[in-house]
Amino acid sequence: MTNFITIGCFLVALGGPAILNIFAYPISRKLSVKISDYIVRVCAPRLFSILSTYKNFKFCGDKNLKSELPEQFLIVSNHQSLLDIPLYMRFLRDKKLRFVAKAELGRHVPLVSEMLRAHEHAMIPRTGSPSVAMKTLDSFAERVVARAQIPVIFPEGTRSRDGNLGSFYAAGFRRLLDRAPMPVAVCALDGGYKVSTLDGIMRKLHNGLYHVKILKIYPAPTSKQEQMRILEESKVLIQRQLDEWRAGTDAC
């Protein structure tokens, strides 16, 4: 019964802004930005409130190191679910986050697509010339610097279907730091892969837990070697944190 109540609450709480933004975006980008701001400020926290109330699905955001975050920084994180985006919006709700995402998310994903386009996140095509992807990242880097925004990149490039950490790809990470040098905050998350599909929401959500934690903050790298060292260490740090969470040695 709670499955139907949860889905009903989603539709009531989130359906209106999602539908309104679909019609608003082609007509007025300014209006779409306002609706998207509402989605970020109100809908993202509401999403987790609904999950907590009806499915006892807990959000566990570790506040350690949050007070040490600089004014602007690049977030490097593993990636498990579309819910990772609202997760970070809730965890760092006082920051203007902008995500590097695959271009497919910019079309036909309710609540998400228009918000990503209106807020000018980096929409990277999965196919075609690599130069197009690099130009998209260059424009994105210029925007986040000019607007004091916080870029978020998932070096795996795609969601992990089983929660296991995949290979980290350096091209996008290095391009962003070349164009917009800034400190790097390494973050880990876990739990999203269990609820990345409608079936997962229906069957695996109850008593679930979604972790997120800042693991380390690096000064802005000044060379290619430093960039690669940070990326390599990031994967090690994230894997270690995943192991601790799953072993129960770092509880919420």
UniProtKB/TrEMBL annotation:
<dbReference type="InterPro" id="IPR002123">
    <property type="entry name" value="Plipid/glycerol_acylTrfase"/>
</dbReference>
<keyword id="KW-0808">Transferase</keyword>
<dbReference type="GO" id="GO:0006654">
    <property type="term" value="P:phosphatidic acid biosynthetic process"/>
</dbReference>
<comment type="pathway">
    <text>Lipid metabolism.</text>
</comment>
<keyword id="KW-0443">Lipid metabolism</keyword>
<dbReference type="Pfam" id="PF01553">
    <property type="entry name" value="Acyltransferase"/>
</dbReference>
<dbReference type="GO" id="GO:0003841">
    <property type="term" value="F:1-acylglycerol-3-phosphate O-acyltransferase activity"/>
</dbReference>
<protein>
    <submittedName>
        <fullName>Phospholipid/glycerol acyltransferase</fullName>
    </submittedName>
</protein>
<keyword id="KW-0012">Acyltransferase</keyword>
<feature type="domain" description="Phospholipid/glycerol acyltransferase">
    <location>
        <begin position="73"/>
        <end position="192"/>
    </location>
</feature>
<keyword id="KW-0444">Lipid biosynthesis</keyword>
